[in-house]
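ZP: hey, is the adenosine-5-diphosphoribose complex queued? I don't see it on the tracker
AM: it wasn't, my bad. submitting now with these inputs:
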Amino acid sequence: MARKKIALIGAGNIGGELANLAVMKQLGDVVLFDIPQKEDFAKGKALDLEQASTQSGADARVIGTSNWEDCAGADVIIITAGVPRKPGQSRDDLVGINLPIIRNVADNAKKHCPDAFVIVISNPLDAMVYEFKRRTGFPAEKVVGMAGVLDSARFSLFLAREAGVSVKDVRAMVLGGHGDDMVPLLSYTTVSGVEISRFISAEKLESIVNRTRTGGGEIVKLMGTSAYYAPAASAISMAEAYLNDEKRLLPSAAYLTGQYGYTDIYLGVPAIIGAGGVEQIVELPLTEGEKAALAKSAASVQSVVDVVKASAE
Ligand code: APR
């Protein structure tokens, strides 16, 4: 059987780490795609990664390219094309620059990779993944946004460190948009099934929730650009769930058709990802406070989606 093909659209910081993880985990052959001005950069990165693969013994091929035909027939596409945040910027500030980029990527993906499972990472995430789906007309189950796995990862790490337990045992769930009003759900957060409030005080939990909400910004401030190791690791978990039909329950930006009371919007919700893509959206009972927080988050996502829709061609 031929190896799977993973096309990474954007060969920058996240794209490079995605390629590294895909090779290390032997998910398939990797195409690192970027714009013509960055083609040599993509080729150089690909060569460096292939040389690194000799040490792990992975046989996957990695190529760098600016030719969409090299992406043809990809099983999975992961999109990081666009610009990242700089200190002081919100994700929403990127919409003007990243919207034409996602449209260009959508048109090419539709032409060359119509059967791929697509994971969007470019920000503002919820609006970019919405526009990708709208523009391509791809089925909703084949287009997801990566945000919740990353937000939950940040939440889990802070909780594990504070509780003094292994990161392996923390199960955390974050709903809503990928913005500072995301909704970390304490009621569904446990240490191997034991509720988190047994380990961490209410005040400390509140400060961890706040740190999670601004977790991306914390890194932008420190590095001058946005995070890449954890975003790449999170998207690879989603790609693996699809490629290996793992049926994992992962918080994902998924297209809603009435779930949680929302329609025609991408929002972070628990989703089961397997060979069918988003196979199921799991609806959790929420407290009144959680519902209100989700409504606030959805409203801010909708305001960016409205900007995108207003300029739709
Ligand atoms: N097609 C393909 N690649 C493109 C296109 C395009 N039309 N336009 C820009 N790119 C490429 C850039 O040339 C660059 O190499 O996307 C790459 C983005 O890489 P970085 O600038 O290193 O950004 P990165 O940190 O990887 O973040 C990418 O993910 O998390 C989000 O907010 C982040 O929107 C940003 C995206």
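AM: back. The longest helix spans residues 288-310.
ZP: great, adding it to the tracker
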